[in-house]
Structure formats: structure tokens, C-alpha cells
Amino acid sequence: MLAIRRARRKFRMGTICSPNPSGTKTASEVCNADWMASLPPHLYDVPLSNLAIPGSHDSFSYWVDEKSPVGPDQTPAIKRLARISLVKKLMKKWSVTQNLTFREQLEAGIRYFDLRVSSKPGDADQEIYFIHGLFGIKVWDGLMEIDAFLTQHPQEIVFLDFNHFYAMDEAHHKYLVLRIQEAFGSKLCPACSVESMTLRSLWEQKHQVLIFYHCPFYKQYPFLWPGKKIPAPWANTTSVRKLILFLETTLSERAPRGSFHVSQAILTPRVKTIARGLVGGLKNTLVHRNLPAILDWVKTQKPGAMGVNIITSDFVDLVDFATTVIELNDLLQEDRAVTKC
């Protein structure tokens, strides 16, 4: 029965994603652009905190600027080394954690975005950029790309998690929040009870965007959710075994109510890891060979109040990551069938 339901769901979702300006393909030949809208009706009233939702780590880092200054998130020693042009080229290999643009990630099914932002030292204006060692695109450009997708897919919901801020004073925060308002307008969902966040309730209000803001500044705006509502424990390891143990432990400690939960299914390089794989970069040194084992762990999980919720990965296109996470929601359908019997 589970296989039949998956086949039916894939049939409903099985259109090829529309071509995008970059001309690149999404993570899968099957488009997940409307997977939330394609869920069975009995899941419309399940809290989003109980659904399985695919996300990306350092979501914006598909492009970083080698020509810009090194970001304020780096140590003084790295900043000095980066005066050598070759160093920035090597940094890029370790700063990039995704291949797909925001639009391509959304079409592949990604609905949670891990966002780190910064002002650019020396800039006269208050422009804010994404950052991961090196500066990425302007935040405004990313927000507009996401908004354009949401306008075309009115039943899809996204989580934007602004969790690191660098070189930003109060004026920068006000500027950023204003840009968020300008980009999404009435799509923004006011912060309220996590358990009240269901697909049906959001659709009725025509809300599509939940903004999490890990800074006390969130208190000034009703549409900014506090960071504590979306904990994302970090394993900080290069070992798949240790990562999986950490993910299992933090899931077992998850609060059953009151917050979403992010399982960061990512490996983090240490200094010696980078030294050994300096030229290869993050993808070739650490991610490519370990991602299949991480995906095997994902396949064994189950969503629910004490199960997985949001799962994030590096290079979400290297394996069928998003579809694998989405299909975990079929297990919630199984529960319903058993109950009815």
C-alpha cells in the first residue's frame, strides 16, 4: 500500500520543473515544486512541526565572490592570508556548500533555508549580503527569487532562518527587516503557537513565509519568530558514526511541543581536514563519499511530535535528498490507516 501511495503522489507531482534562467537541472528529474500542495488532505491539519521537511545548509552559498573582501566571520589570520589571490580560490572550495540556486532548491522541494548575513565593510550604504567565509549575493536578490517562486506556487510554505549576523548594527537590522517586509508583504506569517501552524491554517490566511530571527531585534516585529522556536543542534564532527549518534540523541531530547526542530545532517571539516583536502574542497573531500550513508539514516526516520521535522544537508542535489525526506510523510499516512482499522 505504501508503494502505491508513493506512486500516486509522484504522479500528482510528476511534472518536469520549468526551465530556469541558469539552464541547469534541479536535483531530480521529477519536480517537487508543489509537494506541500500534493500531500493528502488528512495531513493538511497536522502541525508543520510534525511533518518531514527538507532543508539546505548554508543555503545561499551556491555562489560566493572571490573578488570581495573576506567576510567578518573569519579570523584575523585568515583575513591576512586572503590577501593572496590563490587563498581566496581555495576558500571558495570550502565556502560553497550548495550547487543549486534558491529557485532550483525550491523546485527540488527544499523548504527550509539556513541564512547567514553581513554588511560589507567599507560600503557606504546599508546593503546586506549572504556570507560564508566569502560574500555571496545580496539578500534582497535572494528574497525576490524566493518570493517569485511563492507567487507561482501559492500553497508552498518556506522557513527562512536568519541565524548568524555579522558587522550589523541596529540600522542594518532595521534595513534588513524592511527589505523582508517589502519582499514578502502579506505572505509573512505572524509569530504565534507552533502547534497552530498547519498547511490548512496557513492557506486560509494566505501566509507562506515564516521568518526566524536569532537576535533580540525580533521583539519589535510581529512577523519575526524567535530563534529559540527552531533549535538546530550542531554535531560539529567529520565522522558519520558520531553524526548519526548525535542526531539520534538530539531527536530523543526534542521538546514534544512549542518548537520546530532542525536535524543538521551535515559533516563539518576541521583544520586538518581542510589541510588534507585543500584543493579538493568540501564536496570532494567530505560530502560526496559520506552523503549516501547519511541518506540511509534519513530513510530510517519517521516524522511526528518526537520524530524528525526539518532535515538539512549540504549539496542537496548530489543524492535524491529532498524526495527522500518528503516521502517520510507517507509514514504518517500509514498511521492513519492503522488507526482506522
TrEMBL record:
Q: What is this protein called?
A: PI-PLC X domain-containing protein 2
Q: Which SUPFAM superfamilies match?
A: PLC-like phosphodiesterases
Recorded superkingdom: Eukaryota
Q: What InterPro entries does the annotation carry?
A: PI-PLC_domain (IPR051057), PLC-like_Pdiesterase_TIM-brl (IPR017946), PLCXD1/2/3 (IPR042158), PLipase_C_PInositol-sp_X_dom (IPR000909)
Q: Does the keyword Nucleotide-binding apply?
A: no
One Gene Ontology molecular-function label: phosphoric diester hydrolase activity
* CDD domains named in the record: PI-PLCXD1c (cd08616)
| Ranges where the Phosphatidylinositol-specific phospholipase C X domain occurs | 42-214
| DNA damage keyword on record | no
Xref: Pfam families: PI-PLC-X
Return one Gene Ontology term, BP aspect: lipid catabolic process
Q: Which PROSITE patterns match?
A: PIPLC_X_DOMAIN
Sorted alphabetically, which keywords does the UniProt record give? Hydrolase, Lipid degradation, Lipid metabolism, Transducer
Q: Which organism is it from?
A: Dipodomys ordii (Ord's kangaroo rat)
